[in-house]
Amino acid sequence: MRVDGILLLNKPTGISSNSALQKTKRLLKADKAGHTGCLDPLASGMLPICLGEATKFSRFFIEEDKQYTVEVRLGITTTTGDGEGEIVTSQPVPVFDRAEIEAILERFTGTQTQIPPMYSAVKHNGQPLYKLARRGIEIPRKSRTITIHELVLTHCEHETFMMTVTCSKGTYIRTLVEDIGKVLGCGAYVKMLHRLWVAPFQRHEMISLEQLLDYNDSADIPLLSLQTILSQLLPSITLEPEAAFKLCRGQVIPYEHEKAIGDVMLLDPLGEFIGIGEIATNQLVPKRLLAKTSENKECVSV
């Protein structure tokens, strides 16, 4: 049986995102699989995995916001910005009250620039930075624009505090924590990191690798359909039979619209999802289509 859809894996700590992906792919016997955003081995939490035909549409999910719960250890900095690196500095932690930390966190909300850490998957001349970092090589990195939508302090002790971070794609929590530590004047690193959700999957439950093992039939595994998820991100168009026929063969069709509105979900006359198109001036262009739209109707992948 072909496996198509999106699985929200609750990735455990101690394994890479790719390792978790490959284990899921084997357990579900999927032909194709890909995830929509890396989590470090130290981190746990939501890792959306696209299976089968869903891999064609993964790019529509990678630009979305994310939310994390983070435990911050004060007074220590490490080479990697988390507990896996070697200690670089260690110093006594001043006594901070809750209001002081909340005031600092408030300064880090909003749109800002952030420089990716050396221990990251960002590539330089085709090589991940973390491989260079392990050899003691430091490369200048360009800053990136990110947005921290909200920082909420949830628990506070002398040397540690917990916070919830809601942020844009491309935000490095380790860098954020290091920057907070600099402002506090004592340094800091990420002691624990758990991703609570990735938009648009906030209202959907995750499933663990252990739970996947309990399923005897992959057909019983709770996969999310592309149509369900993409309908939260894009407007849709229900096509007439002739228009659906032509689009499924990669043809551009006339489409009257006052202005270009970008990407749209394409639905056949029965309301079934067949792919993504783009409305341009007076035409509808197929961009990414399913291999099959119904039992006896083939659709060419564009």
From TrEMBL:
CDD domains assigned = PseudoU_synth_EcTruB, PUA_TruB_bacterial
Name under which the protein is recorded: tRNA pseudouridine synthase B
List each copy of the tRNA pseudouridylate synthase B C-terminal domain by range: 174-215
Q: By which gene is this protein encoded?
A: truB
In which domain of life is the source organism classified? Bacteria
User: What InterPro entries does the annotation carry?
Assistant: PsdUridine_synth_cat_dom_sf, PsdUridine_synth_N, PUA-like_sf, PUA_sf, tRNA_psdUridine_synth_TruB, tRNA_sdUridine_synth_fam1_C, TruB_C
Q: Does the keyword Isomerase apply?
A: yes
Domain tRNA pseudouridine synthase II TruB subfamily 1 C-terminal span(s) in chain numbering: 235-290
The record's keywords, sorted A to Z, are: Isomerase, tRNA processing
Q: Name one GO biological process term.
A: mRNA pseudouridine synthesis
Q: Which NCBIfam families match?
A: TruB
Q: What does this protein do?
A: Responsible for synthesis of pseudouridine from uracil-55 in the psi GC loop of transfer RNAs.
Catalytic activity, per the record? uridine(55) in tRNA = pseudouridine(55) in tRNA
Q: Which residues form the Pseudouridine synthase II N-terminal domain?
A: 25-173
**Active site as annotated:** 40
GO MF entry, a single one:
tRNA pseudouridine(55) synthase activity
